[in-house]
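Hi U.,

Before I forget, here's the chain from the pilot set. I'm dumping it here mostly so it's searchable later in email.
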Amino acid sequence: MNDTTKIALKKAPLAFGLAAYPAGRRFGLNPQQLLSPGRKALAATPGGTQGARHTPARAP
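Structure:
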């Protein structure tokens, strides 16, 4: 992998986050609201409860 590709792969998540933030604010999306249905579905699965306990409630 060349240096240009490595730099692009490092900058892509930052660019996505910067673009997603205003879009989320515009539509009134809250990360907590987006995650709660997934957590409830995961907790409802037999093997999902163990993984759900180890997942933090809030991102640091």
